[in-house]
Amino acid sequence: MSNDGLENPVISLKLLIDKEKNKVVYAEAGGDFVDILFSFLTLPMGTLARLLEKSNSSVPIGCFNNIYASVATMSMKHFSTEASKQMLLYPGSLNQDKCQKTKLRMIDDDSQATKCFMCPMFVRSGQCSKGYSNFNTSRCSCGNLMNEVIQFQRKGVKASAGTNGVFVRSAHTSFIITDDLKVEVNSVMSTLKLLKELGYTDDCDKLVDLILDFNLQEVTALLKCLFTSDTPLTDTFLKKKSSCGIKRMLSPPPALSEEERESKADQTITVNAYVRKKEGNIMYVECGEDFVDLLFTFLAMPLQSVWGISGNGVTFGCIGNLCKSFKELSVDSASGFKCVLPHYYKCQKQQLLDDLVTTHKPPTYYRFVSFSVDHFREYCLTENSDKRLVYAWDKLLPVTSIDPKSEGNNNTADESSGFVKKGTKFIVTDDLVITPSNSSSVLGMLKDKQISLEDVECRVISMKQEEVIRLLRASLVTFSALSTGLLAMEPSSTSVPESRFYKKPKIET
Ligand SMILES: [Zn+2]
Predict the structure, then answer these.
(1) How far is the CA of 122 from the centre of ligand 1 (A)?
(2) What Pfam families does its record include (predicted)?
(3) Which of 193, 412, 464, 508 has the most CB atoms less than 10 A away?
């Protein structure tokens, strides 16, 4: 692909507008625009929180902004390694390459392309771990930083001459997108049906066409509207603001049968919850690293997976419509919304999410060393490389991934460590602000809220998969994830509580 026109790329859109109401009826666009809409759903929650933070406005995605801000503000000493913090602040995704291919790749100039690093002494020293890391802050067992980028043998360029887009099937087709983000293939039938549904039967003179160029700046505006508006196209293109409000609703998920509960019974996470006796809400929980590792894993999960796992009974603006359209029009229809994370996110307590969240199998590379008369050459082959090019098979050294979350040893991904240091205690507030705990933080918090110790009781809460799913869906839609998710309390309000919204942190890197 050439870089032409990347300076100021635009996508042409045709909007059908209701003049009287100053409202978008629908947009007509090509696959390139739909790809951008769908790419939003593939972004990890941590990336969404960061991009919206960067746009200098408080756009709340339930409690996810607080989890993200907690990672950003927590001191490095509480993380198992530097890489652990890095992978949470800039979550990696298996869709990263695809997002880069969308026409307006606003998405994330900060996230690093997935690179692999090795110890520079790898070939020469016998003490080196025979592994690679995806982070250049990992340390080899010989003591050196693993900061040498692995150069891969150039892959044969795959011709991308399909008729498909990046995420959407049939890139060249035209689509219609309603104001509430239902996407359909454009046809006379579908437009007429839609106009009828929206009540435009015979008063079509108030409808006008508007052709406009959609540019890079507006991608962020559109993304913001996805989380703040029930009419994102109108708000992005006509009103230039997103204050019209958004519907957030959560009804309880269907309870699992005894049998289903039993089958998932082996693992639990236990926390001490401090509950206000009268109000019945959780003020905060005190927990070990297992619960925090689980909450941090939420940041790596793509929006579409969080939505899929949350199941029925969740309303959050137009996200449901967009997810449904994505499912219908996706290139990769088989994959559904299964959550597969890059291998380095693997950690123990994710087994609680068992069949719902899995990690990708780390690829093994082959290091090839060749000596010729005048130079020494090393490069790496991927599993898919054409190995016929290599005549000296005995010089192929397999290089497997190490767990960048564990420091200075050769843990394989099977014994993966967590993101935070073992043995640390944490405090998590109802809206998921996470801090390392000490005795003064507990008392300080009670004092801050002017609550006497007598009004508070401590309850032990054990979580299994069912509770974790409840917690995840409550984190997306409410600002009281613990009370709603774990005590099944009605979310008191679905409007953004000003006072609870976490203060904007300084991002420490
Ligand atoms: Zn080494």
Answers:
(1) 5
(2) DUF674 (PF05056)
(3) 464
Average pLDDT over all residues of the chain: 81
CA-nearest of 291, 313, 331, 296 to 463 is: 291
Mean pLDDT along residues 233-249: 79
Span 368-401, pLDDT tens digits: 666 555 555 566 666 666 555 555 545 667 788 8
pLDDT digits (tens, 9 = 90+) for 170-228: 766 899 999 999 999 999 998 999 999 988 887 678 899 999 998 877 888 899 999 99
Measured CA to CA in angstroms, residue 494 lies from 231, 299, 321, 476, 491 at distances of 18, 21, 20, 11, 7
Distance in Å, CA 127 to ligand 1 centroid: 6
Q: Which helix (H) or strand (E) holds 185?
A: strand 183-185
* Spans of all domains in the chain: 10-105+150-490
CA of 76 to the centre of ligand 1 (A): 24
Between the CA of 146 and the centroid of ligand 1 the distance, in Å, is: 7
* Ligand 1 center from residue 389 Cα (angstroms): 28
Handedness of CA 161, 164, 170, 171 (dihedral sign): negative
Q: Hey, what are 322's tokens? A: 């967009």
Sheet strands (E) in 318-406: 339-341, 357-359, 365-371, 376-381, 396-401
Residue 165 has pLDDT above 80, yes or no: no
Give the Å distance between the CA of 219 and the centre of ligand 1. 43
Predicted confidence (pLDDT) per residue in 107-120, tens digit: 555 556 678 888 88
| Averaged pLDDT for residues 336-349 | 83
CA of 139 from ligand 1 middle (Å) equals 8
* pLDDT for position 202: 75
Ligand 1 centroid to residue 117 C-alpha, Å? 11
Which positions ≥6 away from 474 have C-beta within 8 Å? 62, 63, 250, 480, 481, 482, 484, 485, 491
The Å distance, Cα 97 to ligand 1 centre, comes to 30
Give the per-residue pLDDT at 370.
Answer: 60
Contact present, 167 and 330 (Cβ < 8 Å): yes
The sign one gets for the Cα dihedral 77, 78, 84, 85 is negative
The better pLDDT of the pair 283, 373 is held by: 283
What does the alpha-carbon distance between residue 470 and residue 193 come to, in Å, rounded to a whole number? 37
Q: Are strands 339-341 and 357-359 parallel, antiparallel or unpaired?
A: parallel
CA atoms within 13 A on the CB side of 506: 2
Output the CA 149–ligand 1 centroid distance in Å.
Answer: 14
Pairing of strands 131-132, 396-401: parallel
Question: How close is the Cα of 23 to the center of ligand 1, in Å?
Answer: 61
| Centroid of ligand 1 to alpha carbon of 92 (angstroms) | 25
DSSP-derived pairing of the beta strands 23-30 and 282-287: unpaired
Please tell me the distance between residue 402's alpha carbon and the centre of ligand 1 in angstroms.
Answer: 13
Position 140 scores a pLDDT of 87
Give distance in angstroms: CA of 270 to centre of ligand 1.
39
Query: What's the 352 CA to ligand 1 centre distance in angstroms?
Result: 35
